[in-house]
Automatic annotation (TrEMBL):
Gene3D superfamilies, sorted: Helix-hairpin-Helix base-excision DNA repair enzymes (C-terminal) (1.10.1670.10), Hypothetical protein, domain 2 (1.10.340.30)
Transmembrane segments: none
Superkingdom as given in the UniProt entry: Bacteria
GO molecular function: endonuclease activity
Presence of the UniProt keyword Coiled coil in the record: no
UniProt-listed GO biological process terms: base-excision repair
Name assigned to this protein: Endonuclease-3
Organism: Hymenobacter actinosclerus
Length: 269
């Protein structure tokens, strides 16, 4: 992806101590402060990783829905391989729906839990057809208000807020709905954009409420992508590299961590 291609870690000190997330000050900011912090974070990370970020997918919405379901708790390269194999074996979604389930399972074997995902995919394809009253590629979601489009998708089995947002944003619909993955969620929590007990599902509404309502799909996509990149490349789960982080000055988790290391060194020295 564009932002990933030229990003190089700046040569700053890496603080490598493993710590637990600190609840300190994560919920102390009021809404206007968190909105301002979200925009500041966006600007810093866009400078770091490069915006606009090129969209990585050009799938129609139904294909994006299937792709998102295959990617659940699966490495990108494995879910990509599962998707490609499925498309090669069954050229149309109607064929996937009507195929023997064990053949669908075999086609998606590179992803996790193919034995659960195969019947789930077929169930979803049947329900989409029933609810649309016939062949349906989900293009009609372009004409619904975003909350209604998400609610429609989330009535499907196994579809939550991350998948519904991914279908609207990543597919050719290109609508401004923001998914929150585990990297995005972790960075937002450590910065104090959301509280320490807010889970990934609940974070979708809270983090979306921090963004300007008139942001277009590219801006929403950039925001999600740069937070995700940051979680992948700097704000690691176990040993975040706070010493080279461009967000350190406003990150309570990073400040506590860096100062904790300094205090430890002073106590020893
Ligand atoms: S300072 Fe940066 S790397 Fe460290 S916890 Fe905060 S956001 Fe993550």
């Amino acid at each position: 992806m564009l932002g990933m291609a030229f990003w190089q870690p700046p040569p700053r000190v890496c603080v490598g101590k493993r710590v637990k997330p600190s609840p300190a000050s994560a919920t102390e900011l009021d809404l206007p402060e968190r909105r301002e912090l979200a925009l500041w974070t966006h600007a810093r990370l866009c400078t770091e990783y490069g915006c606009p970020v090129a969209f990585f997918a050009t799938k129609d919405p139904l294909s994006e829905l299937i792709s998102s379901l295959l990617s659940h708790r699966t490495r990108n390269q494995d879910s990509h391989r599962a998707y490609q194999q499925l498309r090669a074996r069954f050229p149309t979604w109607d064929e996937v729906r009507d195929a023997p389930t064990n053949e669908v399972e075999a086609a998606i074997s590179p992803c996790t839990w193919p034995e659960q995902k195969a019947p789930r995919l077929q169930q979803i394809l049947r329900e989409v057809g029933q609810r649309c009253g016939g062949p349906c590629d989900l293009e009609f979601l372009a004409d619904l208000p975003i909350p209604e489009a998400r609610a429609w998708l989330e009535l499907l089995p196994g579809v939550g807020p991350k998948t519904s947002a991914a279908v609207l944003l990543f597919s050719t619909l290109r609508r401004p709905a923001m998914p929150v993955d585990s990297h995005h969620h972790r960075v937002a929590q450590r910065l104090g954009l959301i509280g320490p007990k807010v889970g990934e599902a609940a974070a979708h509404k809270q983090l979306a409420a921090l963004l300007p309502p008139d942001w277009d799909a590219q801006q929403v996509y950039d925001h999600h992508e740069v937070l995700m990149f940051h979680g992948q490349k700097c704000c690691y789960f176990h040993t975040p590299a706070c010493g080279r982080c461009p967000l350190l000055e406003r990150c309570p988790f990073g400040q506590a961590r860096v100062n904790g290391v300094k205090d430890e060194q002073e106590a020893k020295g």
